[in-house]
Design brief:
The complex is a heterodimer. By secondary structure, chain A is α/β, with parallel strands linked by helices. Helix content of chain A is 41%, strand content 16%.
Chain lengths: 331, 524
């Protein structure tokens, strides 16, 4: 028993030493709240640290969870930078962010940044319909075709997932509350197969369990990188509606930061050519600055018929979107 | 000491004055302070910001029905499985008995979302194991939760079985009762307190679980709460639903308390070893076969699925990365949390078993209420509390450990209570009568008597913390990534290889401390 206790104590101390991470002060590392997962961005973080000599402390979690955390922490937050996966989370926390300089904003198409210049997109993610190539489901020409009875029982959706909710929010901006409710009810009536996230929808499509599903474009590309996904294709809805919504991941600087220069350096780094190439080749997302090669296996961003909506307004209708999804009986 | 009847008439509680008794009350009160953080903070949150019910009443009723059905089904099944594994591994002379005992506890470390993913991968059109349709909905959630919460019952019932005086069973056998009759009329009634605690542990855990129900698409309260937390920046609807869920759990507890017979079960005999049952023929084959089947399903299946993914991923040159730092963090924080929780649980168990009364009843309800809350609710409530009242503790390791203790306290208290119910207070009185001071009595008599329960409780808490996710995500210090977090974030991004590798490491590092504990303290 004694040895056991000693073992416990030793391991405990080691773990605290490794965990490090005490509350930051002005001289400590710069704190980044990252809604993008460590799997995707850890190499970037390391590279930035070694290039700039600035030490980072990263808190990884769901983007929406971090946005809510930032709102709860308010101006007292330790976070210097918020790097999020979707415009709705960025928008929710935008009131706590400072304005970015013009030269930063100008690097990115105005469609993919905040109207008031408080956050800027860093990479693009596009909504698609994945489909099994052996299945005879008709490929949707518009997002309304995706709820066609031909898809009954064949469509995978992830109604609790942030991307799906962002898509529904965008639909509210495009066609209003009632129009969105109708679409969601049509989807629910079509007996969709519900999943917790996008990746299992693509898996199930690849195995032929589903005809297809509403997901983001890069899950299939990642599945292929794992040596699977050979029976599946991405379909980009060509109608210019929310079916091909482009949702930028993006970054903003917290207004209360004591290291505005270091924070700006990180933002610049994320928009640098090398980093943008990393997004295209490693996470299979669309780079958002000029002159960087697009990911393989997808059409270039300029050829995708994205809808014309103001992403800055997405956060305002996110709660309504969640409610409509619940009322339609999808969750 | 003379042999007396099993339940000697004792003066009513409260009539015996034991000096220093108030000390336990104070200690238990202090130990329960962390438990009050989530429910009290949740109440304040709801009072402060108001309630909104984003869910239509019809759906609310449906969610309640689904939750109740699943809870009852899982509780019954898991307790039966846990009783079978606990009885077989502690009573029957089996080859590698201690190994079986440990293995039957280990599935607890498999997070329910990993278990659900394993079931999904093992079945379906491209099933790794069988090509039957994946049992989505009630059946799938019921199977997964029953199999993977059975260790909660297993670990709680082992000390219970061990503490039963062999003389009672021997007497029944001597009077000509069959083995089955002895089991049902002598063993089971004496196990009642342990069966009740394991039933509560399983049932209220089922209420709080999210992973299995969401992946297997069975609509419960907790799934609705998670959806609201994830999808909405506005915390009011989710807080309101959480409060309803907690009320539901407290109703279950009140019903349970009303019907719980408080039979004092302490034996006056010193504990002695019991010869193991030597089964022969088909009985031996059957019991080994059943244990093998359970271990294969509960451990083999997730292991096989994860190992397949890792191999397949490595063949496609996926990078797994090092998981050493995560493993050390998970292990360290789980061990500290287990230790702290057991220290807090001991006075609570003392007060609730030695001086049960109305106050201790309330205290127990608060404890179980917090246990039944979805962990994301606990996390959000705890964040709110720290930001408002305990800013210096916000996002510190200490606070994280305190909240773990608040969530998992019932696991340690339940196990300790069972040992204490059986250890007669007369032994303590005798020690005091013989001139030992209260501290010496505590160290030499009470703690040794309670030790099997405390160790079992520590093992439960350790395994639960190892896999805990939602509260960890919200409360950990920046950069404190654990194995469970790694599994979650890799799975969410579709990096199956890395997620599976982290899952394998999680299992591997849990085995060592568990083996240590089980072989030293739990086997007789």
């Amino acid at each position: 028993m004694k040895r056991l206790v000693i073992f416990v104590v030793v391991v405990a101390f080691v773990s605290i030493a490794c965990g490090g991470a005490d509350n930051a002060d002005a001289d400590g590392p710069m704190v980044v709240y990252s809604g993008r997962s460590e799997e995707l961005v850890a190499p970037l973080i390391e590279q930035f640290e070694s290039e700039s000599g600035i030490e980072l402390e990263v808190r990884y979690a769901d983007s929406s969870e971090l946005a809510a955390t930032l709102l709860a922490e308010g101006e007292e937050t330790q976070a210097d930078v918020f790097f999020a996966q979707d415009p709705a989370s960025l928008g929710a926390a935008a009131a706590l962010m400072s304005q970015l300089p013009e030269e930063t904003l100008d690097m990115v198409d105005p469609r993919f940044r905040d109207r008031d210049g408080r956050w800027v997109g860093t990479s693009g993610r596009v909504r698609v319909v994945v489909h099994n190539t052996d299945s005879d489901v008709p490929l949707p020409e518009t997002i309304d075709d995706a709820v066609d009875p031909a898809w009954a029982g064949q469509m995978g959706v992830a109604p609790t997932n942030g991307s799906f909710l962002a898509f529904v929010s965008a639909m509210i901006l495009e066609r209003g509350e009632d129009g969105t409710r109708e679409w969601l009810e049509a989807l629910a009536a079509n007996d969709p197969v519900e999943f917790d996230g996008n990746a299992p929808i693509v898996d199930a499509t690849d195995t032929g369990e589903l005809g297809g599903g509403l997901v983001n474009h890069y899950y299939l590309l990642r599945l292929r990188a794992e040596g699977q996904g050979t029976n599946t294709e991405n379909h980009f809805i060509p109608a210019g509606d929310v079916g091909s919504l482009v949702m930028p991941a993006g970054v903003g600087i917290m207004a209360g930061t004591e290291r505005p220069d270091a924070a700006q350096q990180l933002v610049d780094f994320l928009l640098a050519e090398e980093t943008q190439t990393f997004f295209a080749t490693e996470t299979f997302e669309f780079p958002l600055i000029e002159g960087v090669a697009q990911p393989e296996g997808v059409p270039p961003l300029s050829e995708i018929d994205a809808p014309d909506i103001d992403l800055s307004e997405l956060a305002g209708v996110l709660d309504l979107a969640t409610r409509l999804v619940a009322e339609a009986g999808l969750v | 000491m003379t042999a007396g009847p099993l339940t000697a008439p004792r003066p009513k509680v409260g009539q015996v004055r034991r000096p220093g008794g108030w000390g336990w009350g104070v200690a238990a009160g202090l130990a329960l302070l962390p438990v009050l953080i989530p429910p009290v903070s949740l109440l304040f949150q709801v009072i402060g910001t108001g309630t909104t019910l984003a869910v239509p009443p019809g759906r609310l009723a449906e969610l309640m029905l689904h939750t109740a059905l699943l809870t009852v089904a899982v509780t019954v099944t898991a307790v039966v499985i846990g009783l079978a594994t606990a009885w077989t591994t502690s009573r029957v002379a089996l080859p590698f008995r201690k190994g079986w005992m440990t293995f039957a506890a280990l599935p607890l470390v498999v997070p329910s979302y990993v278990a659900a993913l394993s079931l999904i991968a093992a079945t379906g059109p491209s099933g790794v194991i069988v090509e039957v349709p994946t049992p989505y909905g009630f059946v799938g959630a019921w199977l997964v939760l029953s199999v993977f919460t059975a260790p909660l019952a297993h670990l709680t019932l082992i000390p219970g079985l061990r503490a039963i005086d062999p003389a009672t069973e021997e007497a029944a056998t001597g009077l000509g009762a069959s083995r089955w009759r002895v089991f049902t009329t002598v063993t089971l009634p004496q196990l009642k307190p342990a069966l009740v605690s394991s039933g509560l542990l399983v049932g209220l855990y089922t209420i709080s679980d999210f992973g299995a129900v969401s992946l297997l698409r069975y609509d419960t309260f907790t799934r609705a709460i998670y959806t609201l937390y994830r999808g909405q920046i506005d915390r009011r609807p989710s807080a309101t639903l959480s409060l309803i869920l907690m009320a539901l759990a407290i109703v279950i507890l009140l019903v349970e308390r009303r019907y719980r017979a408080r039979v004092p079960l302490h034996s006056r005999r010193p504990r002695r070893a019991r010869p193991l049952l030597a089964l022969t023929g088909w009985r031996r084959v059957a019991s080994i076969g059943a244990l093998t089947l359970y271990t294969l399903v509960a451990l083999g299946l997730p292991l096989a699925v994860m190992a397949t993914s890792v191999v397949r991923g490595l063949e496609s040159e996926q990078i797994v990365g090092t998981l050493g730092a995560e493993a050390v963090r998970s292990l360290g924080v789980a061990l500290i949390a287990a230790l702290v929780t057991v220290v807090l649980a001991f006075p609570v168990a003392m007060v609730t078993t030695r001086r049960p009364g109305r106050l201790s009843g309330w205290v127990e309800s608060a404890m179980w209420g917090a246990y039944s809350l979805p962990h994301i609710t606990v996390g959000v409530a705890a964040v709110g509390f720290a930001l408002t009242w305990a800013r210096p503790f916000y996002q510190t390791l200490i606070y994280l450990v305190i909240i773990y203790a608040a969530i998992f306290l019932p696991q340690a208290v339940g196990a300790a209570q069972d040992s204490l119910i059986r250890a007669s207070p007369d032994l303590e009185d005798a020690s005091r009568g013989l001139g030992r001071g209260p501290l010496a009595t505590l160290a030499r008599v009470t703690i040794p008597l309670a030790l099997p329960g405390l160790v079992a409780g520590a093992a439960l808490v350790f395994l639960s913390v190892m896999k805990e996710l939602p509260a960890t995500l919200l409360l950990r210090p920046n950069g404190f990534e654990t194995l469970a977090i790694r599994i979650w974030s890799s799975t969410a991004e579709g990096f199956i290889t890395r997620a599976s590798a982290a899952g394998l490491v999680l299992l591997a590092v849990s085995i060592v401390p568990l083996f240590l504990v089980m072989s030293r303290e739990l086997s007789d």
